[in-house]
Amino acid sequence: MKHIISNISKLGVFITLLTGLLACNKEKELTKAISIQIGGYNSGDAELEMSIDTLVYRNKKTQPNMPVDFANVYTYSSGKGQATLRIKDLKSGREVFQQQLNLGGSELELFFPFVLINGKALEIKPPAADPTTNKIGFYIHYPASNDAIDIFLQNNAGENAYIAKNVQPSGWVYSNYLPSEGFTDASKNYFLCFTKAGTTDSWAFEDSEGKSKYSYSRVGTALPMKEDKGLVRTYFVTPAAADLRVERLFKLPK
Is 52:97 a contact under the CB 8 Å cutoff? Predict the structure, then answer.
């Protein structure tokens, strides 16, 4: 009898240890994480909701005519290889974006550009990098006019450095750009200006300087500075109710 009780006792200890080990392994499976970012703009009357598989971010919706600025750390089981990132238009009930996530890769910070214009996702296909120059791309959303637009940087001395000329709204334009003298110091303030083609002070959007001139932060827009080469930078531009929106469509460099 004592022998049986001893064996039962040993079995109980073994089961307790095994349960503890399984619990520890289960906890370890939940330790992996990946950073998910979505940047862009929601133009129109849609309300957007993001989800990853069955996890819905109901407290991080994007309201109409507002920047898309989603950032979240997604935690998952170490045995999980893939997940699906989705964006849903709550007004229509349609899924407007879907992206498969590779959870087994080495990249721990993923960025996805996304622009919705009146219920339709904008196609964003930046060109390949060129090591001899920088590629700067703009999409101007301004349904009020089809007039051509010039885009240039302006420094505090009033000097201008053109990025693109005769740009048509509602389409992509890409330009080669190398910083010129007077526009290489990242510590100084610069303005990104949009004017009617062939002018420097006839403002492109609603004839308003406030809606056509953007004072930008180097960190926020990451336009090329100093000796930068080989960069690809894409932006979505639209006048808002009180100012100008210039939204980056690329991952910020470290």
Answer: no
